[in-house]
Amino acid sequence: MLNRRRLITLGGLTVGGAAAGFLLPKGTPAQVRPLADAHMGGQMSGMDMAGMLHHTGPLTPATTPPPVTPFATAMPVSPVLRPVACSSTTDFYRLAIQPANVEIFPGTKTPVLTYGGLFPGPTIRARTGRTTQITYTNGLSEASNVHLHGGHTPQDSDGYSMDTLAPGASRIYRYPNLQQGATLWYHDHAMGFEADHLYRGLQGFYVLEDDVETPLRLPSGEFDVPILLRDAHFDANAQLISDWPALRPTVLANGKIQPYFQVAARKYRFRLLNAANERLMTLNLNGTEMIRIGSDGGLLPAPVPETELSLASGERTDFVVDFGRFPIGTQLVLSDADAGPVLRFDVVRSAPDTSRVPAVLRPLPAMPPATVTRDITMSFDLTSATPIGLMNGRAFDPNRVDYQIKRGTTELWRIHNGDAAPLNHTFHIHLVQFRVVDRGGAPLLPVDAGQKDTVFVTSGNSVTVQATFGDYLGKYVFHCHFVEHSVLGMMGQIEIVP
User: Which among 272, 270, 274, 361 has a CA at the least distance from the CA of 323?
Assistant: First the structure.
């Protein structure tokens, strides 16, 4: 039976059962939470487990949440965090990691985990070349830490999985911001807790801006809107249910269910993040043209008009919609292929618009030729009741370095999904942005364009990426960003050496 009492040890880690989904170092108390005790009563076959581990469309959940009137609640935009002090080189912030009760369903409070009491967390707007220093204080009763996803950060501020922040403790994270403008995000990455903590709300935007974008005159200020999408499963009392990702039918936009967002009849830039633990989102806007201008790591070389956007967990895209083409009173619905309507845009007023989408945005940085090629296979061992996540046949071991890489080296990584359908994966590596250069001979996907740090790899297929490992020394991880997969062991470790 898959429950909190089933524990095994492998690869230097204590692994909670599939229901628990925890990896803890040997000797650590087994603080294991069940993810599936409520609805799993017995042994599952490997294929049953595969179906539970991968979201291919909503299954029928065991409970029904309170009813919500569609498009009756405004979508909030997370406030920008203000620095507590500034120097000539650095902006200083303080941010608490804390539980809170928030209103997701009207008139009802839901317990969540937050940064600064906000769900999602406050947006941090940083500047290229100017250091951001954040003092995080852990107000939880368990370990936490913070990873700046997509950031080029020193190892001691990366949110390395084993480098956790104890309850009640504070820690300074320093981000030099020595990279081009991009839509990044911050989230929990504490070993054994990350899947549960992300699901309960520990995530927020980190928008890095630079002077190169200013003369492009893209929509800015109040017309530059971050939108965080994630899914959840609620019970009849509007409480979050910790279960398998496939049983999370409700998609939230900035923490609200099917909200509306009032817009002026002009151009808007939207920064879209798929922050779900494990979900592929395929989005359309009533067939309206959405002009993709950016990817995980920043602006594309040129805008790309599309009528559909696909994002896997951890991926971001920036796009522009010109609402000036529509009369006041128009309503446009952003819908997901699985979840249905997610967010409605209401054109409610006229407004001047001096913004534009130029034909040329930003050339990609030069990439030296690769001198090393590596093969990395993500897969599951489903031969027992407890699935084990593997990288090249081995579960994560913090005491093992999988690859030593000389700083400044450019490498090709051929990333293979060794699992059969329906087990898809997303691949994410810390420290670097990469380029997707091949999909097993098939055409690249639109979302593959530009600089990336997360890429979707379908079952039985492979993706080749190219990256230059510069800037900082030390240990960094790479893993599946379907977070329940990484928490079950699907993670490896590199060490950057002089």
Answer: 270
